[in-house]
Amino acid sequence: MPDHTAxxxxxxAPELPVTLDMPGKVADxxxxxxxEPAERDALDEGVTVRRGQGYTLRLSAVPALxxxxxxxxxxxxxxxxxxxxxxxxxxxxxxxxxxxx
Length: 101
What we know:
Blueprint lengths: L17 E6 H9 L4 H9 L1 E5 L2 E8 L1 H10 L10 H15 L4
Antiparallel strand pairs: 1-3, 2-3
């Protein structure tokens, strides 16, 4: 029948964008980092939300891009990093890890 098309069952569904709040200390670090164009575009499209003395960046992207950005800010997790930046990275890592559940 010409009206019916074959459906491939092995093709995974495309990932939908997810909105996460990225702490400002992580966003500042990533703005200064050498990023790929897709990562840079996602950061530039984020919405800044003021929080007390700092801010968060409300970022809408597919989960794979959130994981890439988290990998890029790995230097914030070492012992020589400022404690507030380590905490900010951990907060973002927790939000990204919750996407898998």
